[in-house]
Amino acid sequence: MKSLSAITIGLLLLTSFANANTAAGKQQISKSKSTYHWMKFNAADKYARSKVADLGVTIEAVVEDYVMGLGTEDDLKAAKASGLLETSFPLTPKMLDFPAYDSNFHNYDELTTELEKLAAANPGLVRLSSIGKSLEGRELHLITLSTDGDDMSRPAVFFMGGHHAREHLSVEMALKLSQYLVQQYKSDNPRVTPLLANRTVYIVPLVNPDGAEFDVSAGDYKLWRKNRRNNGSAYGVDLNRNYGFGWGGGGASTSPSNDTYRGPSAFSEPETQAVKQFIDTHDNINIVLTYHTFSALILYPWGQKYEHIETEKDYMVHKTMAETMARWNGYTPQQSSELYIASGDTTDWAYGVHGIISFTFELDPGMSPDKNFDPGKGFYPGQKLIEPTFRKNVEPALYLLEHSDNPYRVIESTSTAYGFRADIL
Question: For 405, how many CA atoms within 13 A lie in the half-sphere containing its CB?
Fold first, then answer.
């Protein structure tokens, strides 16, 4: 779910077509099983964009009258047959010129080590556990921050990163948030210390470890999005199309070869099952924030239909909180389906089933006319972006924690308290 300026897209197309005509531009992404293509579609409104999403293409850039999408050879064939495709070009190794090893990003083993160190050094505050295992048997690490042994006695925010394999910056955001909160608590920060004395923080930095490891395996980058489910003819399920609320609707593919393949059934994947089980059994979670990349957006339900959230106060809470957080990080706040329809995602399920106030942050890089944007670096922007992206998103995270006791305070509800989720419903 992305937003690009028309000027930037123009620069992108001119630069990319020039690259595509070089010898390097005719090569496939190193060691990738499929050539990925950037595709430009005529799509003047959200309804036309939803038709593009239904092709199985992942929409990565939205402009006033067209979109840019990313897809495989099979997606390109479907796009050509649709009559919506205006033009396309292959991604090349040059476009994905991100170092094979970057010391400031963490692979799965390095992430595990960092989390173990954090827990070992702070036994009274940090607990490291797991919400389950991935398809290939990796632990889905959970960091719990609580000064009370009974973490469920306090209102909580649940932060997640790494649903999509190639979105490594989202993992770093979640990891750095856990480290920052611990550091500030130990420093007796007048804002953070009281918060952690009265709130519980749950953080799963990496929901899709199998996909993330595959994306950086063999020293190259594959633009991999899904998990590593063997579907016979192709690998992977899009975990953010596999949640149960509205599953099987628009913007989620039935084809295993597509990047937005929804899976054979809702919650077919162990990773989404683990998230579901955790939220189902933690009634103190009043807010969910899931980090993705890229393009600097704050999104909230619904994604699976165009209508606003039916309960007016719930809609206004989401809208108000999104607009408030946007003042700090400079992102664009909006309902997800204003871009295009996407069904089976995390936030629609968390709100639709449990009434949890839920947001998706599409992190940096954002797009502006003064940037000659390289499409590959949207997902692989370089380590220089980790710290500034984190810094601009600290205030929104603290804001959510502060309001997790009663998010409805942001619209000045006449109720004195809503308590935990069960009371809200």
Answer: 12
- Measure CA of the first residue to CA of the last residue in the chain; give whole Å: 30
User: What is the pTM assigned to this prediction?
Assistant: 0.82
What are the structural domain ranges in the chain? 6-90, 108-424
Locate tokens 């809470």: which residue? 317
Distance (Å, whole) CA 12 – CA 417 = 50
List pLDDT tens digits, range 334-346. Answer: 999 999 999 999 9
The overall average pLDDT reported for the chain is 85
How far apart are alpha carbons 219 and 99 in whole angstroms? 9
Query: Which residues of the chain have a pLDDT value below 50?
Result: 1-33, 93-99, 101, 369-373, 413-425
Q: Is 310 in the active site?
A: no
Cα separation, 3 vs 296, in Å, equals 8
Helix (H) or strand (E) holding 142: strand 139-145
Q: Which of 263, 241, 266 is nearest to 251 (CA)?
A: 241
CATH of span 6-90: 3.30.70
Domain covering 108-424 in this structure, CATH number? 3.40.630.10
Which among 356, 390, 191, 218 has a CA at the least distance from the CA of 285?
356
Rounded Cα distance, 316 and 397, in Å: 19
CA 219 to chain centre: 24
391/192 Cα distance (integer angstroms): 15
Residue 220 burial (CB count, 10 A):
15
Catalytic residue among 312, 323, 362, 395: 362
Burial (CB count <10 Å: 0-12, 13-18, 19+), residue 321: buried
